């Protein structure tokens, strides 16, 4: 089988559902944040769809959606409305979902992505606002339903079929998450279900302009699964096309543990949702003064931030992109630089050791930029070496204590006093006769081995520069 | 019936009880204020009357809430004792069973909600409780307010207090019959296409449908959300104004409720019946048209002459899209109901039919199949069809456009007139079973009330004549939010005619001799 990338071009579209981080739900006063709550404890007659209740719009949810639209450089129509999307399901309390059909809050817009040093725009179709459904859990002998999620504001963001590779899809999601988090409109955590993503993918022979038959893939729970599922699906469809088969239009589910997609339902079973204007909610009119107010509330967005990192801090594109698309990293980076650290060094620390600790879920709430700046300064000043610095970081990160204190406690300060190091150097020379002879015979690189032995003997505390000077003196 | 009891044979207390149930809101309130009678005595007089008569006459109530009523009456008496003079304090009333009441069954007239007890009061239930009214019971109705005779009740039909062989109209037939039978000082109904005004007319009582958005719908179990409105059924126009004072006004829980200030509706009622300078429009589409019973026509002509005598200037106009009203309504209302009734799925609070081994779709189909009556199913199917892909433009969308045209008809007329008058219903009360086999004949009952509903305008029905012992209603339609003018005209008409003083045979029955 030839590689699909040679024969076919993949066309990918993404449909994301984003839970908005509002205090209350979309149409009632229940708290929207149900994480960790007992089932059916964040409910009221409205989000349970009891007879006689009526929805009242959450203004903040509308504003978050509009701010997202502004951040995407999208078109915000003056008039918009809500519609009922009718379908029966036990997790849908009213038998219809309040959503938006033909007049979404946001039209168009784009997200800029960088893949392999190439930057391009991913075009969006629309962004609309709707209510989330409850959650079903299937157990033996039946199903359980939890309505805590019922009525949580949900933003649906649909791209045009505008992406071509799994890497682009992942870059889009990463940038989207950065924008949403920077705006503060969503936690946008896929693992927590705050950001859910379905993908549509079709293949066509390279050079063909018509779209192939699209397949929708659901049940993607991480950026990684989006990328893997797309990679799998492209291979699968290419193989099918190569074998002369046609691709049926269908919905497939991604099985994370097996790394495959399986057919869930065919197009014939597609619903007629019988959309009509929600009579319980008046239309929403978005005037310029409202938009002006919201625009003023927009923070610096990831693209602008990335550009600034490249100009103000002379960071490379990769560093600037990585830091600017992570709200936590960006803040730590800027604060660390403000505390006097070198930007490049701060960027390295944040993307490597500090980032790993943060990503591992280690509680680092007491850790801040002053700690990192101090750690970098200790290395700069020669108080500790880089390996000692990496050794103290986890303790500092978890405890929030000063790096200097931790260095002192662990006795990791570098020994720069040559008289204190001399004994260790002499021991090393005595124990490594062969290397000494190599050096004296003109193989000058042997000194690196000897230096390593000194570092080892001093448990990393020797100042490497002083140790090298001493070695040279004694070998001379 | 009225002659079957002798005033002389009654004890003083019985006499007093008999008298109490004959009083309207204003008169009752005066006696309560003077402490001649307690709220508890008033409530018990009505409850006793209901218990003695309802089951064997009109069958207007699905639930009687004696305990709750006595509790509320005790509270009212405490307030009265403190000199509280809230205008509805201690007044007994009945709610249509489509209005949610905390802990009290609220069925919407449907088997599917037979066991449903709401966990909270609706806005209007709460407002009336705060106003100090006493809830006596929940009134029968056509299932989910779909019908014009109350024969579509999932439980039993209600009968007309003027003739027990006739229907009371619908869908608020229980509320209208209860007021007509003097079971309560007032009742609330709901009106989607005529469901307050038509039973009001057929039972010889006053029925007011307010402007859409004037009264909160929070707690009104939805039939057609863009049309439903709550309104009073009373024995007099003044009582309707008093109830409106308590229930009208903005509610943050209902996004379609209007923020306009609420006037004192009794202030517009003049003591002198004078309509000098009032310009009234007579739509030719409401008169001399096929389907209007001759007796109704005669009564209307007399009513028009009377309005002229009161000084009003009447002129014939045209509401050209009236003839499309019924078709428009029977697309929009079913479409909305097809969504509104989707929540009764056998999974949550509603009737749930779960046979061993039944799957999800079996539960849906069996619960809804058993729980809903024929008319409700008919409308769900009609609405689902009208909204379906491929039919939406031809039916639902077109109906919305015609709805706009109907509104414009009224706008045009209201640029020159203060109100529109005409019959409430083309016919008087008809025999039970007479139209149940023919849905279209039944739908025609609302021919003159539906356009008002589609336009969201206020309309009132006041007693305006009798045909063979059955009442006729005069409908007065006003501009949006101009209930005051509607009430003023209705009041002037009422106060200068005798129709509202006539009491139905059931009203004249004594609770004492009934036992």
Descriptive keywords:
heterodimer, A: 476 residues, alpha+beta, Arc Repressor Mutant, subunit A, 3-stranded antiparallel sheet, 16 strands, B: alpha/beta, Amidase signature (AS) enzymes, 11 strands
Strand content of chain B: 5-15%
Chain pair with largest interface: A-B, 28 and 43 residues
Write down the Rg of chain B.
22 Å
Which spans of chain B of ≥5 residues are poorly predicted at pLDDT below 50?
1-12
CATH topology (level 3) name of the domain at 24-276 and 459-514 in chain B: Amidase signature (AS) enzymes
Instruction: Work out the helicity level of chain B.
Output: 25-40%
Helix coverage percent of chain A: 40-55%
Q: What general form of chain A does the structure show?
A: elongated
Question: How many separate domains of chain A?
Answer: 3
Total DSSP E strands of chain A? 16
Structural class of chain A: alpha+beta
Strand share of the residues of chain A?
A: 15-25%
- What is the number of helices of chain A? 17
Structural class, from helix and strand content of chain B?
alpha/beta
Main beta-sheet annotation of chain A:
9 strands, mixed
Oligomeric grouping of the chains: heterodimer
């Amino acid at each position: 089988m030839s590689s699909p990338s040679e024969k076919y071009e993949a066309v990918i579209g993404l449909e994301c559902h984003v839970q908005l981080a509002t205090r209350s739900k979309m149409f009632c006063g229940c708290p929207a944040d149900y994480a960790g709550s007992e089932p059916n404890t964040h409910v009221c007659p409205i989000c349970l769809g009891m007879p006689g209740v009526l929805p009242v719009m959450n203004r903040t949810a509308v504003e978050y959606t509009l701010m997202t639209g502004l951040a995407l450089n999208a078109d915000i129509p003056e008039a918009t409305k809500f519609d009922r999307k009718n379908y029966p399901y036990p997790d849908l309390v009213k038998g219809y979902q309040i959503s938006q059909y033909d007049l979404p809050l946001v039209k168009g817009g784009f997200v800029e992505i960088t893949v392999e040093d190439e930057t391009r725009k991913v075009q969006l179709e629309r962004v609309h606002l709707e209510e989330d459904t409850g959650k079903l859990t299937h157990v033996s002998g039946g199903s359980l339903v939890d309505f805590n999620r019922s009525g949580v504001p949900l933003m649906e963001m649909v791209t045009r079929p505008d992406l071509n590779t799994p890497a682009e899809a992942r870059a889009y999601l990463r940038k989207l998450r950065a924008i949403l988090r920077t705006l503060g409109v969503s936690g946008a955590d896929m693992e927590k279900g705050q950001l859910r993503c379905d993908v549509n993918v079709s293949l066509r022979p390279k050079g063909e302009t018509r779209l192939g038959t699209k397949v929708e893939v659901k049940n993607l729970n991480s950026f990684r699964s989006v990328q893997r599922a797309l990679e799998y699906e492209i291979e699968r469809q290419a193989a099918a096309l190569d074998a002369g088969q046609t691709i049926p239009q269908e919905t497939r589910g991604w099985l994370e543990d097996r790394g495959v997609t399986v057919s869930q339902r065919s197009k014939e079973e597609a619903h007629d949702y019988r959309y009509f204007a929600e009579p319980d909610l008046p239309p929403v009119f978005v005037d310029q003064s409202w938009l002006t107010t919201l625009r003023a509330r927009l923070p610096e967005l990831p693209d602008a931030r990335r550009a600034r990192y490249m100009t103000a801090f002379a960071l490379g594109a990769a560093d600037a992109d990585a830091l600017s698309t992570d709200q936590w990293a960006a803040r730590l980076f800027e604060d660390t630089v403000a505390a006097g650290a070198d930007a490049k060094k701060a960027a390295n620390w944040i993307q490597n050791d500090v980032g790993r600790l943060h990503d591992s879920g280690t509680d680092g709430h007491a850790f801040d930029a002053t700690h990192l700046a101090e750690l970098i300064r200790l290395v700069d000043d020669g108080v500790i070496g880089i390996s000692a610095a990496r050794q103290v970081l986890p303790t500092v990160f978890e405890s929030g204590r000063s790096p200097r204190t931790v260095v002192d406690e662990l006795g990791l300060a570098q020994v720069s006093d040559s008289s204190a190091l001399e004994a260790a150097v002499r021991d090393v020379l005595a124990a490594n006769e062969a290397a000494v002879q190599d050096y004296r015979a003109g193989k000058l690189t042997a000194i690196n081995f000897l230096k390593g032995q000194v570092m080892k003997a001093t448990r990393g505390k020797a100042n490497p520069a002083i140790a090298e000077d001493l070695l040279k003196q004694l070998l001379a | 019936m009225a002659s079957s009891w002798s005033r002389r044979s009654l004890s003083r207390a019985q006499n007093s009880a008999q008298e109490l149930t004959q009083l309207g809101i204003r008169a009752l309130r005066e006696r309560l204020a003077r402490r001649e009678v307690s709220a508890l005595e008033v409530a018990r007089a009505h409850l006793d009357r209901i218990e003695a008569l309802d089951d064997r006459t009109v069958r207007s109530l699905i639930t009687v809430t004696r305990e709750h009523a006595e509790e509320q009456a005790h509270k009212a008496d405490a307030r009265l004792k403190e000199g509280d003079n809230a205008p509805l304090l201690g007044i007994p009333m009945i709610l249509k069973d489509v209005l949610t009441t905390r802990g009290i069954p609220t069925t919407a007239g449907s088997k599917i909600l037979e066991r449903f007890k709401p966990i909270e009061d609706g806005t209007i239930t709460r407002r009336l409780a705060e106003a100090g009214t006493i809830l006596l019971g929940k009134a029968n109705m056509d299932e989910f307010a779909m019908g014009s005779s109350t024969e579509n009740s999932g439980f039993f039909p209600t009968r007309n207090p003027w003739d027990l062989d006739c229907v009371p109209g619908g869908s608020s037939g229980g509320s209208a019959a209860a007021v007509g039978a003097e079971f309560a000082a007032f009742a609330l109904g709901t009106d989607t296409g005529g469901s307050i005004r038509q039973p009001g007319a057929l039972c010889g009582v006053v029925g007011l449908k307010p402007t859409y958005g004037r009264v909160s719908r929070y707690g009104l179990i939805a039939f057609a959300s863009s049309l439903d409105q709550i309104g009073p059924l009373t024995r007099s126009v003044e009582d309707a104004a008093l109830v409106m004072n308590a229930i009208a006004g903005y509610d943050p829980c209902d996004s379609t409720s209007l923020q306009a200030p609420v006037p004192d509706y009794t202030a517009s009622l003049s003591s002198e019946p004078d309509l000098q300078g009032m310009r009234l429009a007579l739509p030719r589409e409401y008169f001399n048209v096929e389907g209007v019973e001759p007796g109704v026509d005669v009564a209307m002509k007399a009513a028009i002459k009377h309005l002229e005598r009161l000084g009003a200037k009447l002129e014939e106009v045209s509401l050209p899209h009236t003839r499309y009203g019924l078709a428009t309504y029977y697309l929009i209302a079913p479409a909305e109901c097809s969504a509104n009734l989707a929540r009764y799925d056998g999974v949550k609070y509603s009737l749930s039919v779960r046979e061993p081994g039944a799957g999800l779709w079996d539960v849906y189909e069996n619960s809804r199949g058993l729980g809903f009556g024929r008319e409700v199913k008919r409308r769900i199917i009609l609405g689902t069809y009208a909204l379906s892909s491929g039919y939406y433009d031809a039916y639902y969308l077109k109906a919305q456009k015609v709805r706009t045209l109907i509104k414009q008809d009224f706008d045009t007329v209201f640029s020159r007139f203060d109100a529109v008058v005409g019959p409430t219903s083309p016919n008087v009360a008809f025999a039970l079973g007479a139209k149940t086999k023919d849905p279209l004949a039944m739908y025609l009952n609302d021919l003159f009330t539906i356009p008002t509903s589609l336009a969201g305008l206020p309309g009132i029905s006041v007693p305006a004549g009798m045909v063979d012992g059955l009442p006729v209603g005069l409908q007065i339609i006003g501009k949006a939010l101009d209930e005051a003018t509607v009430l003023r005209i209705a009041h002037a008409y009422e106060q200068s005619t005798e129709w509202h003083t006539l009491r139905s045979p059931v009203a004249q029955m004594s609770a004492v001799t009934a036992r």
